[in-house]
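User: Could you walk me through two proteins back to back? I'd like the raw sequence and the structure tokens for each, with a short line separating them so I can tell where one ends and the next begins.

Assistant: Of course. Protein one, sequence then structure:
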Amino acid sequence: MKTNTYIKLLLTGFLLGFVLAAFAITDEEIVIGLEALDDWEAAYPLALQIAREQNAYPVWREVAIKYSQFDSDNRAYLQAWQQAYLLNQESTYRDFLNIKPQSSLNHYAISAIFKLIRASDKFEGYLRFIAEFSNVVESIEALLKTHEIAFQRAKNFNEPLVFDAFVMTFYGAKQIPQAIELAFETEKQRIEKELSDIDNIELREKIARRLFNEGRIAEKQHAPLVAARKYQLLNLDIFIDTKVFTALLDKKERFAYQKLMQTKQNEIAKSIKEMRDAIIETLQLKTQLMEPAMVKELPAQNPSLEKIIARHNYLLVQQFKQLNKNIKAGSHIDTNVAELIPVLTGLKIAKVIGKISLIITKTLANPSKYQAILFGSKNN
């Protein structure tokens, strides 16, 4: 009898345990069930709890997107940013931009993307950034970086026609005067080497005639850089007593080089001013509630383009630190408040970048062999 009672109790306990186990569903399953019932409001707190436990970017991202109408205090969205920041991957930052395309917080992600591109320091990376984010201050910095890389490639190759390609491709680049001078110096050295015997009058006349003819041909071929350089070479001391130089004395071509340099200097000054003005205007819009006096004084101070970019980067870093500090402290943050940098205020920057980068974009489609050297690509 006692044995039967023991067996019954054992079976009852087993069945009870089986029933309880059957009903022990996970939080994830509860959330899925509530979502299936279209009860998103009830599912949201539990989804938040799951996200806190797992604390990973994909989970916070999913909560921020699925429950956007209930995430009024941006808890999930801001935690998604925190995880993206910790991962520090370009692909993650780009994905973050899609959570709330119009959010002011996106500028931090764009800035982080640029920092990664700047760390790799690749020409194509900067061009890609300019094409995608043409309305932010970082796009101007990216443009300046393309100038630096292309000019260094031109110097490494040390060929006059490559320097010419740089001048014609990168409108307004501050390195243009130096590129023109280096092209001249390179060709000058070749001529001096060719004319090692300066007492050879016949050879000097021959080279002078060749330079003059090459200048004329370049003019007809609409190659003003080549033409100006050829005429300027005729001003070298070794050609002063040649018949060609004498004939050139009263011709306007003699001053083509100086006019070219002045034209390029004017273009550079105009380009730099346009970029400076665009950044200052954007900074003034972005910092209406932060250091307004300092930003307002920028035009009067007439700082260099590099200093203005440095000021922008400084302000961004300060805001960046404060944002992350507030998130960690659990402070309430409205991602649309004016203190955060609006991503769509750099319309003037976009206009400037569009004009300057247009030549580069067109050239990339079908570069000459000299432009291909600047781009770091193989010529067709």
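----
Protein two, same layout:
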Amino acid sequence: MPVVEVPLLPRLPRAGIGSNLRDRIPFPTFEGCPTAGQPDGKYLGSDGTPLRPWCFVGEITEVDAMTHKLHLVATDMEGRRDVHIYCNGEDLEKRLHYQGAQPHIGYTVAVLYASKRELIEGGVGLIVEDVLFMKVH
């Protein structure tokens, strides 16, 4: 089995035991997620580094698995539908298998450090550059 390298993350304050999923600071809705490359003082510092941990959580409503690309559509915790999540990678299938869950409709998706980006297909969504920042269960 090939070794999967885990990227180093900056040391940030931890959310702690018993974190409240209704707390919109560590668990923002899609609209509350920062926009990539735009420091906001809440999540991203002026140099673009994270100021605190955060995680987008949604329910998967559509799955489109393509070669080297995964496209999920999710509903966020406030009911916003059509949140598009794209994940790229040559070893995407192996990494998802290693995590123990393949995405299915009705499953929960969590994306660490989720940032909104303009999509090539049009609109705004989330692009996961490393599947280690995404968990499906």
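The helical segments are 92-99.

Let me know if you want the two compared in more detail.
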